[in-house]
Amino acid sequence: MLEEIIVNVKFPIFPIKYNKLIFPNAINGTAFARVILDHARSLNPEYSRVMVIVNNSNIKSYRNSREKTIRQVNAKELWYSCNFPNKSLESFVKHWDESNEVSGILIEQPTKADFPWPEIKKTISPDKDVEGITYYNQASIINGDCKYTHPTVESVMLLLHFFYESIEGLKLVLIGRGSVGLPLGQYLIRKGASLDWINSKTSFEEKEQACRQAEIIISCAGAYTFEKGYILTPDIVSEKAFVIDVGTKFIDGKVYGDIHPEVYNKVQIAALPKNGIGKITLAILAHHIATYKFPENRITSFLI
After folding, report:
1. Which residues contact 203 (CB under 8 A, 6 or more apart)?
2. Rounded CA gap, 181 and 179, in Å?
3. Which of 6, 70, 114, 233 has the most CB atoms lying inside 10 A of its own CB?
């Protein structure tokens, strides 16, 4: 099934506009998203609803894009604010998890510092965890038994599958070990990549050496700040590298990635956070919702 989807991708590399600049060697996220959504619609999914715990007013543009994408697979979002006590939130999520009225549960991120993640990750059942955030789904990526993976993780998997017959033995750098980095790292190790896993404790010298040698660099830290700047700069990246930037951070309603824009123009291929990996991620999220009753058609099962 997976090959049937990706064989229809037209113009996978296409000039992309991002923050008023044009990047010629960019992944055409729209092309990948189109074939993923076409496949989801071909399954004729029944009308469904997905519950969204809304908690961040700074991501309205992303929220609108997500809602628009999900509607394309005959689904609708139900929004609920999480501005009530944590214990009540856990009970609330449990109620909807057990309900037949919704086919999935989403938690908008980033969340507030006191958000009860441990309890919520144990409350949502794996089959309704369309974001792949529960302990079960994140742990099961090691043995390939997860119901869903995080849509961003799956987007990266899809791109690697599209451009490489195998990543076994390839020199790969992964930056970040959060909700995306951790399951992605487990997947890459399982697939036999020669992995340098970088985090906040890694020295600059170690990061520089690893990035200069890397054939593929994936950054998912989401750590951009005006003071510290970007995690990855052009002086430590090879021109032959394939870089994938999934470390988005929203500041004043604007999206910032982990990777300096000049890197995108230097490298062989670049997957940008906006109009690149972001488009694919939303399409895969919609595909997860559409295949709630069709587990045999989930992209996850073919990538893992």
Report:
1. none
2. 6
3. 70
- Taking CA 271 as the corner, what is the angle to CA 269 and CA 277, rounded to the nearest 5 degrees? 155
Q: For the whole model, what pTM was predicted?
A: 0.91
Distance CA 226, CA 100 (A): 45
> What does the pLDDT look like over 38-74, one tens digit per residue?
999 998 888 889 999 877 666 777 888 999 999 999 9
DSSP 14: -
Q: Is the Cβ–Cβ distance between 183 and 155 less than 8 Å?
A: no
The answer for residues whose C-beta is within 8 angstroms of residue 150's C-beta and 6 or more apart is: 131, 132, 133, 138, 179, 180, 183, 184
Phi, psi (5° rounding) for residue 127?
-75, -20
Chain centre distance of CA 170: 22
Instruction: Read off the tokens for 116.
Output: 């009860």
At residue 41, the 3 state secondary structure works out as: helix
Q: What is the mean pLDDT of the chain?
A: 88
For residue range 124-161, what is the model confidence (pLDDT) as tens digits?
A: 999 999 999 999 998 888 888 889 999 999 999 999 99
Domains of the chain: 2-10+23-30+150-281 (3.40.50.720), 46-144 (3.40.50.10860)
Q: How much is the average pLDDT of 222-232?
A: 74
Nearest C-alpha neighbor of 288 from the set 182, 109, 155, 111? 155
Q: Angle 151-163/29-42 helices, nearest 10 degrees?
A: 110
268's tokens: 């062989």
Phi (first) and psi of residue 233, to 5 degrees: -120, 160
Closest CA to 222 of 185, 262, 180: 180
Mean pLDDT of 10-19: 84
- How many Å is the Cα radius of gyration of the chain? 19
End-to-end CA distance of the chain: 13
With tokens 């099961």, the residue in question is 140
Closest listed residue to residue 173, CA positions, set 196, 194, 206, 205: 196
